[in-house]
Amino acid sequence: MMILKFYEWCIFSLLISLLSCSSTVSETRTQEIAFQRDSTFEIKGISLEAPPKPIGMETMNELANEHANWIALMPYAFCKKDDPVVHFSNNHQWWGERKDGIIGCIQLARQKQIKVMLKPHLWISNGAYTGHLKMSSDSSWKKWEDSYLSYILHFALLADSMQVELFCLGTELGTPVNERPGFWSSLIDTVKKVYHGKLTYAANWDDYAQFPCWNKLDYIGIDGYFPLTNAVTPNANEIMQAWKKHTDKLERFSEKNGKPVLFTEYGYRNADNCAAEPWKEDSQSVNDEGQANAYAGFYNNFSNRKWFKGGFVWKWHCSDTHKRQSGVDFTPQGKPALNVIRRFYSGK
N or C: which end of the chain has fewer CB within 10 A? Predict the structure, then answer.
């Protein structure tokens, strides 16, 4: 009888142990693979969403606490799908998209020894994808090129005057690149006359091989939303293995061009299937675990690859102006994914 009671007590204890462990599964799965110590991630960056109004040091303090050593600032410009005029730095735009806001954010970043990539973006009316921007005639293309040149030079001059470390002279403009390759070569030459820091271009993940001027730039810049796995909640091992086919190609491309690769954007939403087609924003099913695992697999895949120099997490909302919201979003703020990023960026 005593033996039976002891046996029953053991079974009961085992059940209690299993139940207590189940509540922490989501916390521990992101640590299935121990982070490797990394010496090649030179740019541990975060993309800062343009603040609507002037900010103080709160946001920069947070970014420094997460061990980010770079931020990306994005002065947006706007144009219509069939209109060659690029509109920028208008008074109706958010403070962080205009010249005064960019200057203010750079000054705040300097106080925390955070380096800056200035990364102009176009926003097409009705939310159309910038890579599909297309003019109807040669004369319209030339008008667009003149207007875009003014936009880029405006911020290139600003970047040079403030000794911004890295300037990105275009973001995801696949059709303009393919149809007007000579313009991009000329644009780079013109920018180099007024800006003396490092240069890149932000190609989309599926068209980086088509950009014709990597030889004139310092980094092969890619917005790294590569499709990886259809798993609803991928684990870190799945992500790491799924990256292999892409990283092999990226390494060969880097060697061929003699330039290191930089992810001008990378990130995952806290949603189901977050790594299937990371650029899409369809799913609204909250899945914090999937997002955290995707980051963990990403870092373990890219650790200690000499040809890969890091990148910029997409994205960070300014705490000074943004009311935190629950739900699905790219930002890692307030989510388990931020713990993964912090661990990797800190090297601990």
Answer: N
